[in-house]
Amino acid sequence: MPSPLSLDLSYLSDVVSPNEIEALSPRALEALQSLLEKTGRGADFLGWIDLPFDAQKQLPALRKAAKAFEKCESVVSVGIGGSYLGIKATLEALGGSPKVHYAGNYLSPTSFSKLLRDLNPKKTGLIVISKSGTTTEPAVAFRILKTWLEKAVGKKKAKARIAAVTDQSKGALKGMADAEGYATFVIPDDVGGRYSVLTPVGLLPIAAAGFDIGQLLKGAQDASKVFKSKDFSSNLSARYAAARYLLYQKGKVAEVLANFRPELHYVSEWWKQLYGESEGKEGKGLFPASVDLTTDLHSMGQYLQEGQRNLLETILWVRTEEKDVAIPKDKDDREGLNFLAGKKLSWVNEQAFKGTAVAHKDGGLPVIRVTLEDLSEYSLGYLYYFFEMACGISGRLLGINPFDQPGVEAYKKNMFALLGKKGFEQLAEDLKAKGV
Ligand code: PA5
Predict the structure, then answer these.
(1) Tens digits of per-residue pLDDT, 195-254?
(2) If you measure from the C-alpha of residue 82 to the centroid of ligand 1, how many angstroms do you get, rounded to a whole number?
(3) Per-residue pLDDT at 134
(4) Which residue has the least CA distance to atom 3 on ligand 1?
(5) Mutation to probe ligand 1, out of 140, 408, 412 (largest number of atoms < 8 A from CB)
(6) Marked catalytic residue, from 38, 123, 170, 412
């Protein structure tokens, strides 16, 4: 199959030259080599590299488990961070799923009440996802939902409509799933949360929504063949990593991912987690931000065009649309739009993309253009692998461990202390002394 992804580095606004990118190739390939040889920092979290192939054998069991949710009108996917964003990103990009709802990714009681108000417990299934099995938000949400479901249909029927995705042996969720007899799927030890969309974390809810997880894996498999290659000229993932690293070295401290399709909003959220949590440590890393265009051209567009020149922009453009709409002719033409009569919205959007990219480049904002052929399962699998490999390489170039997230513990400890959890008594005292 031809590659569904291309990369254009010709809009870097003279900040980084093609020669500089080529000159970085030995370092980028060395970084790639260390990932493939499973050496360097975080080497025991490199399971995502071969995941597209490793996950293949799980497809029959995942499809069978997804089938069990067929009769459900709604399925609530309970999880946060890497146990949430890849699912939401994929389902939204594929056109949305009226069936799948989300919980465990917030603590707001108003939002939770709205969710329960909109669901019929007699027709709802639950997929609870947590690698550690101890994350507070999904644990609290699952307890509420499990109680709600069991109350409506009884423990036995509820059990048949609950599946858990968690660690092979550790964590409270694993213990509960075993004790209750839930269908259970494993997140491999060597795959971190933000790299887990192609494990049962993503595959089970995506299959339950009726999408083709075989094609999602196929896209990632094909991508892995290309992005594991030491040929720097064709390895677009390594080239993207090299370009953004060089831009970072020249003072571009934030990367804004822009899209021209609302369906991509959560792909940007997934990307932000991937890069933010992987790179943002030891005082280093590009700050990942995102904009949805053309909406944000009427707000953030001003800053992108003329604000501080410490940003780079990566535009994710999708070349084809599933549907198109023509602009009608109007006999009065009061708004003077007849020059567009008969033109398709896809074409108008494309001119917005082209015009924006060149305006930003001319304004001194370096633009990396990533073009995806379409929003299919295959292309999304390809895209995820492209970004994951580039993120691994970027981490190596920066000299940090792109596979841990020590910084997310700080808020958790404070929260546990404030909630009165056992073992956090001293911290609770310290916080009290600070007036918290
Ligand atoms: O990337 C990560 O590891 C995190 O963002 C986790 O995905 C997130 O904290 C959820 O963790 P868990 O799946 O253990 O509940």
Answers:
(1) 999 999 999 999 999 999 999 999 999 999 999 999 999 999 999 999 999 999 999 999
(2) 5
(3) 86
(4) 193
(5) 408
(6) 412
CA of 197 to the centre of ligand 1 (A): 12
CA distance 41 to 397: 12
Catalytic choice (156, 298, 323, 434): 298
Best of 48, 83, 408 for a ligand 1 pocket test (most atoms within 8 Å of beta carbon): 83
Q: Position 391: which residue type?
A: C
CB atoms within 10 A of CB 236: 22
The sign one gets for the Cα dihedral 248, 250, 256, 259 is negative
Alpha carbon 124 to chain centroid distance?
25
Is 298 an active-site residue? yes
> Ligand 1 centre from 134 Cα, in Å?
10
> Would you list the DSSP string of 127-190?
EEEESSS--HHHHHHHHHHHHHHHHHH-HHHHHHTEEEEE-SS-SHHHHHHHHHT-EEEE--TT
CA distances (Å), origin 347, targets 129, 322, 343, 367: 41, 13, 7, 21
Instruction: Give the chain's radius of gyration (CA, Å).
Output: 23
The torsion angles phi and psi of 293, rounded to 5 degrees, stand at: -110, 150
101 is a catalytic site residue: no
Number of the ligand 1 atom closest to the C-alpha atom of 192: 3
Domains of the chain: 5-42+220-398 (3.40.50.10490), 47-216 (3.40.50.10490)
- The confidence band for 98, taking pLDDT boundaries of 50, 70 and 90, is very high
Q: Is 292 helix (H, G, I), strand (E, B) or coil?
A: strand
Taking alpha carbons only, the member of 348, 338, 375 closest to residue 293 is: 348
pLDDT per residue over 388-430, tens digit each?
999 999 999 999 999 999 998 888 899 999 999 999 999 999 9
User: 90: CA distance to ligand 1 center in Å?
Assistant: 18
- 277 classed as catalytic: yes
Looking at every residue in the chain, the average pLDDT score rounds to 96
Cβ–Cβ under 8 Å, residues 22 and 379: no
Residues having CB within 6 Å of any atom of ligand 1: 80-83, 130-132, 135, 138, 192-194, 277, 405
| pLDDT per residue as tens digits for the range 123-148 | 999 999 999 888 999 999 999 999 99
